[in-house]
UniProtKB/TrEMBL annotation:
Residues 355-388 are annotated as: Disordered. SMART domains: KISc. ATP binds at G112, G113, R114, L115, S116, G117, K118, T119. The keyword Amino-acid biosynthesis does not apply. Residues 16-342 form the Kinesin motor domain. It comes from Juglans regia. Belongs to the TRAFAC class myosin-kinesin ATPase superfamily. Kinesin family. KIN-10 subfamily. The lineage of its organism: Eukaryota, Viridiplantae, Streptophyta, Embryophyta, Tracheophyta. Keywords: ATP-binding, Microtubule, Motor protein, Nucleotide-binding. Pfam families: HHH_3, Kinesin. GO terms for cellular component: microtubule. This is Kinesin motor domain-containing protein. It comes from the Eukaryota.
Length: 674
């Protein structure tokens, strides 16, 4: 077996996330066409490795059929079709196993288009063990010698719900965060002592529907699957136990939402899957760029892995390439390449102190081994307003986020998909114990070798819109439910030949223009007026009595409308209002608003936040309760953070609690209507 060339091991330490491509091996149908025979019609990726196996960066050239106007991209390394899991294991995974025994949490992720060999790589196939299987076998043999105990957890993330695959009932697992620490409430940790036990749990204990283990009756479903291998070891002269874990993540296959899905999966489901894949890339980009804020919360899978991604833990991102579906493969590969391109930060000084910072300890009370299942004690607190707020928040934030992302889900979605996402943006299904703390990476052990290359990030090409009003939301919803969804002209034109690279360029252009927008900001008065108009329109609208479609209007049935309906202030039917709502009991505009649904209040909060995110000092000072000092602090906080304020809690750092701000807003609203 080949040993790791010294240059290669250096390369492994170069970046937080190492991006590796793997061209899918020959399946039975391709077996008769060896790579160099030229007999196969399957398009081929070609790879240039300047220093052979020791190359620190390799170039992958796309096949002509890829549909990309770009011809190649660079990644850290690429394994060819004939290079199998054993070789990848010995070169890439083995070095990480030693780190697990020292308390680190490396993560191996497989991503790529449909049928690109992700499951084959991670899990393996009949008689051919995958990376996880090989790793567990090695870990078990090492644990035998060191008297460590091993447990595994196996989960599935399906439509942003986490399920425990080792529990026959497959209960939903809650992801909780307490003081930056992630807890997987309800996820089993099952002890294993032999590889046979592992096989039983990993292959048959789960209701696996991945290739090779497809149960006959189960419908295929695209989901992310994760295996956690926990190593518990006794630390000498200490009453604590070190915990290291290795994560293996088999992401759902990416599929361009504009094409008809191969397994009949609907558009909304597909958009959700792609959204979480994008979220993973965004996290990886942020980690590689050493950004202060890493958007872990954008998807369940990234939030679950936050603990393992933080600190000095290593991540391997395998981009699997399916030569026969090269458009999706090339797209995924390009994104992976972009997530590390131009970032030359070198992780050095991987010292004991650094490791100890990421090394989680469990109290000695758990010395006898972890429980078979972590009890779920935290009750779900689902309230309608929470869910609503979350939806609104996502929408409004989506419209205000600019520039910093590697890309967003909108970049590959049609207009209609975007509309669907708007109505169906997933809300967090469990309350989180605490808001995510700002992630300040450990920079003491990082050395910047060269400046970060200017890296133009495509901005969100989401429609830049403010949706302050539930009316708009509902109107678009009603129309979309009418029938088929027609792609926008832009989307269809891109399907007819325009490549994703062109889209990326156009996104770059949009980014430029959004920067221009930023420079030429509207006058102060206009922005204050916008805020007050939004507040007024919210106050005066009547969502409780609004009639979107005339009930008796037969002509409206079965009509398909893909247009977003412009918001109009509805005419108040005072007779209805007076019947159901005693106006005389209302004392202030805020109380009036309080009687409406919580979505409206949240819209006001979002408007207020939007204002705080964009206003300059003079504007800020005009707000009730924000003087010179606070305005300066808000501006400083805004400059420091690459993210806009997402919730009122984000302003705690300038000494303003959410309660105080709400009090200030009450005054503001009261003044507007007096
Ligand atoms: N290196 C390889 N050698 C031989 N066959 C392979 C190899 N990689 C993948 N395959 C075969 O290709 C097919 C698809 O592989 P696999 O199921 O791993 O893809 P996937 O990316 O996980 O699919 P999905 O999109 O459903 O998640 C399987 O039949 C698998 O056995």
């Amino acid at each position: 077996m080949a040993s790791i060339p010294s240059d290669r091991s250096k390369a492994i330490t170069r970046r937080k996330v190492r991006v590796i491509a793997k061209i899918r091996g020959f399946t039975d149908t391709h077996a008769e066409f060896p790579a160099n025979s030229g007999a196969s019609t399957t398009p081929r990726f070609s790879v240039n490795k300047p220093n052979g196996e020791a190359s620190e960066s390799v170039t992958i050239f796309f096949p002509a059929q890829s549909g990309s106007c770009k011809e190649y991209c660079d990644v850290d390394y690429c394994y060819d079709q004939h290079e199998d899991n054993d070789l990848i294991f010995s070169r890439e995974i083995k070095p990480l196993i030693f780190e697990v025994f020292e308390g680190c949490n490396p993560t191996i992720i497989a991503c790529g288009g449909r049928l690109s060999g992700k499951t084959y790589l991670i899990q393996g196939s009949d008689g051919k063990p995958g990376l996880a299987t090989l790793a567990v076998s090695k870990i078990l043999s090492m644990a035998d010698q060191t008297r460590n105990s091993i447990t595994i957890s196996f989960y599935e993330v399906y439509q942003e719900h986490v399920h425990d695959l080792l529990d026959p009932k497959q209960p939903v697992v809650s992801i909780l965060e307490d003081k930056g620490k992630i807890q997987h409430k309800g996820l089993s940790q099952v002890p294993i002592r032999s590889i046979a036990e592992f096989y039983r749990l990993y292959f048959s204990g789960s209701s696996s529907c991945k290739s090779g283990q497809k149960p006959a009756i189960e419908l295929p479903r695209r989901s992310h699957r994760g295996l956690v291998v926990n190593v518990l070891s006794s630390a000498e002269n200490s009453d604590t136990r070190l915990v290291g874990k290795m994560n293996f993540v088999d992401l759902a296959g990416y599929e361009d939402g504009r094409r008809k899905s191969t397994d009949g999966i609907n558009l909304v489901e597909s958009a959700k899957i792609n959204k979480s894949i994008y979220a993973m890339y965004n996290v990886i980009y942020s980690l590689n760029a050493n950004e202060r804020h890493v958007p872990y919360r954008e998807s369940k899978i990234t939030h679950m892995l936050k603990d393992s991604f933080d600190g000095m833990n290593r991540i391997l991102l395998f981009t699997c390439l399916n030569p026969s579906s090269c458009q999706d493969s090339v797209y995924m590969l390009s994104l992976a390449s972009r997530s590390c391109r131009g970032i030359n930060r070198v992780v050095t000084g991987f010292t004991k102190e650094a490791k100890s910072m990421t090394r989680p300890m469990v109290p000695s009370s758990q010395k006898n081994g972890p429980p078979a299942s972590v009890p779920t004690t935290v009750k779900k607190k689902h309230t309608a307003s929470q869910v609503h707020f979350s939806k609104k928040k996502d929408n409004v934030m989506a419209s205000t986020m600019k520039g910093r992302k590697l890309f967003d889900e909108g970049s590959r979605q049609t207009q209609s998909e975007k509309a669907i996402s708007l109505e169906d943006i997933d809300s967090a299904d469990e309350p989180l114990v605490q808001e995510e703390g700002k992630c300040i990476p450990n920079v003491t052990n990082l050395t910047v070798l060269s400046e970060v290359e200017a890296f133009s990030l495509p901005t969100s090409n989401m429609v830049k819109t403010t949706i302050p009003n539930k009316d708009v939301f509902m109107a678009s919803k009603v129309c979309l439910h009418g029938g088929d969804i027609t792609p926008s002209p832009r989307a269809s034109s891109s399907t007819n030949g325009a490549s994703f690279t062109e889209q990326v360029h156009s996104m770059d252009k949009e980014n430029q223009s959004s920067l221009v927008d930023k420079v030429i900001s509207p006058p102060l008065s206009a922005r204050l007026r916008e805020l007050s108009n939004n507040l007024k329109s919210l106050w005066s609208s009547t969502p409780l009595h609004i009639k979107l479609l005339e009930e008796n209007d037969a002509s409206s049935y079965g009509q398909v409308c893909t247009e977003i309906v412009e918001p109009k202030t509805p005419i108040m039917d005072w007779s209805i209002v007076n019947e159901g709502w005693d106006v005389a009991n209302v004392h202030s505009p805020w109380e009036t608003l309080s009687m409406r649904n919580s979505g409206m209040k949240n819209s006001i909060v979002q408007d207020y936040l939007k204002f705080l995110n964009t206003a300059d000092k003079e504007d800020l000072k005009r707000l009730k309760g924000i003087g010179e000092k606070r305005a300066t602090s808000i501006l400083e906080l805004r400059e420091e953070s690459s993210e806009p304020f997402k919730s009122l809690d984000d302003l705690k750092e300038v000494g303003l609690s959410a309660k105080q701000i709400k009090g200030m807003m009450k005054k503001e609203v009261a003044e507007l209507f007096n």
